[in-house]
Amino acid sequence: LVSLQSREKPRGCAGCNGKIRDRFMLQALDRYWHEDCLKCACCDCHLGRMGSTLYTRANLILCRRDYLR
């Protein structure tokens, strides 16, 4: 979770390509995301709400359950 400074230029979301104007944004895999855009590629769960750990396999972002499966 990264705080967006009020004078900082809005960053682009890696999920939807929209500008992130929220007070907070997520940073994962050297990219920035809206909280609702960072989802597991398999089950669509919101990874920002599940903790601070995410997993990757074959260029997919996954929750722990789907990574282990």
Automatic annotation (TrEMBL):
The keyword Zinc applies. Transmembrane segments: none annotated. It holds the Pfam family LIM. Gene3D superfamilies: Cysteine Rich Protein (2.10.110.10). SMART domains: LIM. Residues 11-69 form the LIM zinc-binding domain. InterPro entries: LMO_RBTN_TF, Znf_LIM. GO terms for molecular function: DNA-binding transcription factor binding; metal ion binding; transcription coactivator activity. One of its GO terms (cellular component) is nucleus. One of its GO terms (biological process) is positive regulation of transcription by RNA polymerase II. This is LIM domain only 1.
